[in-house]
Input
Amino acid sequence: MNRLRIIPLDETVVFPGMSVTLPVDAGSDDRVLLVPRRQHTYSKVGIVAEVSERMRLAGRGVAVSLTGLHRAALGSASADQDGVLRVDYEARPDNTPPGTVTRELEREYRAVVDEILELRGDDGRIGAFMRSITNTGALADTAGYSPDFNFEQKLQLLETFDVVERLKLALQLQRDRLAELQVRKRIHDDVEGGAQKQQREYFLRRQLEAIRKELGETEESVVEEYRGKITGAGMPDPVRQQAERELDRLERMGDANAESAMIRTYLDWLLAVPWAKRSEERMDPVHARAVLDADHEGLDDVKRRITEYLAVRKLRSERGMSETRRSGVILTLIGPPGTGKTSIGESIARATGRQFVRMSLGGVRDEAEIRGHRRTYIGALPGRLVRALRDAGSMNPVIMLDEVDKIGADWRGDPSAALLEVLDPAQNHAFRDHYLDVELDLSHVLFIATANVADTIPGALFDRMEVIRFDGYTTDEKVAIAREHLWPRQVERNGLRVEEVATTDGVLRQVIADYTREAGVRQLERELGTLLRKTATRIASADQTTPIAIDAVAVRDALGRPKVFHEAAVRTAVPGVATGLAVTSVGGDVLFVEAASMPGKGGLVLTGQLGDVMKESARIALTYVKSHASELGMDEHALDGREVHVHVPAGAIPKDGPSAGITMVTAIASLLSRRPVKSTIGMTGEVTLQGRVLPIGGLKQKVLAAHAANLTDVIIPERNEPDLEDVPSDVRDHMTFHIVQSVDQVLALALEPAVLAMAA
Ligand SMILES: Nc1ncnc2c1ncn2[C@@H]1O[C@H](COP(=O)(O)OP(=O)(O)OP(=O)(O)O)[C@@H](O)[C@H]1O
Ligand SMILES: [Mg+2]
Output
């Protein structure tokens, strides 16, 4: 039995082959026994270690370097005469077990460790170390190096003398560890995206901090800067208090905190609102009218209504009358594209000395777009109104709510509800954006809304609107607009001087008639742009004597063959086709209703993207014609065993409304009587089963379209006669209007005499 000095290791296990340096005194002994202990309980197994070096420490103590040799089973311990604790032991070096089972285990163990090393990202050194170990027991003992195992686990390894058992134990431990690492890696991979972003932000922030320091802007000075800005912003008291509260939070928090960035963004937005800024407002109606006249041709009625509106506002404010629910109607400009709604809004701003901002509501379906997201929401931002005020830089701009007919509502909330609040003078002095969460006074903003059509504007909103209609321009008006505004603007845009190009009204008229088909002037402006661009090219590339006269030939050269055809004559040459007048979201238009019949069960087939109301009109039309066949001088049995097909071609524009009623009757009657419809006639009117003609809407737009399509006669319902006053007189003078009450009047007017049909 051998006896060696005990060196206790507190909650530490040393394995054979390991080298450690311990601050203990080994006397003059060459070998010692390292025995792990926990709270005075010693392990039954120790490690015989060789003292390789003795050191004197800087203080008083000594230290020794030791290398583990082999295991030992411990016997009884007692203090020797020299007072040193020594223990009896039996050496238990590892034996080398034979057999394939062991080799299998070894292979398995190495494989598991390799995987762990791969996950861990070993630089190859541990791998090499593992390969250098050939002894089974030593291989199992390598688990003892792992920082992932606790004292108990290592102790268990130490106390297992049998190398195969020990290797099995080590394998089990390593397997558990591998599984854990794999799970951890998966989680890590999942969050890595986010973590990397955070890390990036952190580093950027550190850099920013460094730059700030370099510039002498310490964190303190950032806070001070905000404080200065807040004081200077002229915020209302509650807003200022809110800003200061946030600033205090920022100060306490310090810059490295992720939330501080959010607070700064918030403060930036608060400061972006032009709290104390107001443009000097001009409320002079005479001046306003002059500005409107300078910017826009025609639109007399529109300008008068706008001027009146401004005059009323002026009076009310001079007399200190506060805005009430009734007084605060919203000016709303409704009309087809390119008729100058947006641009007259800009003129109003100019006329009243206010800033102008446009806020497009097309496709907005989310209340938060208007009102902002609450700050708790990641990536929250203020709503459009706050942004509009920021862009305007003043609290009393003209804000144009463009395309109010195109807002939608869904589960995200109803934007029109938020808009109502914004537009209500009883509420809008205390508008609350969700993000800013302070009260904003919008009562000095002049809101103007625009829309292409009235029917899709949310009802509650429409109730509060004062509608001004833009119905589109006559050819003469377009010529004037082109001459006074579009032409000079396009001349300049194409780098030309006004005196370099000359044109005439006749040429402008040619462009309008042959190359555009629209209620407004947008396409016209584009065509003029093209024309002038080609001219500019000519001037730039050759020595041209100016002024260059732009004539019909030049137009043809630059714009190609006419794009618009007046097809009424061609289309209505055969029986069964009638020319109707309609209003769509792009303005008035002519449309052709075609009827045909074919063998069948006797019914009605409808095509051409017709809405429900229009389908109903078609049914009414067919029933009417069938039941009045003999009065209409047609063969009552012409439709026996046949079905009627009604088609409304022209584009993919969905068509609806009852106003095509008489056109459908006419088309079907024309088909059955084999009398074609007069090619110069357009018509509009709803029809009842009794054959009465009911009034329709949008008469002016329809008449303008008929005029532009070269129709000379228009059939209109009696009750629409007063609307003819809205039609500009130059158009009225060129056209004949037929006022009707019943369908037989329509047919008498519209169908060619029967004899003619025979001849044809
Ligand atoms: N009466 C007019 N006098 C001078 N220019 C006009 C007139 N009407 C329209 N314009 C010009 O036509 C162009 C198109 O007008 P604008 O953009 O205002 O149309 P809009 O009615 O707002 O159309 P949308 O419904 O498509 O928004 C502008 O450049 C505008 O200046
Ligand atoms: Mg517009």
In short: Residues 756-760 have pLDDT under 50 and may be disordered.
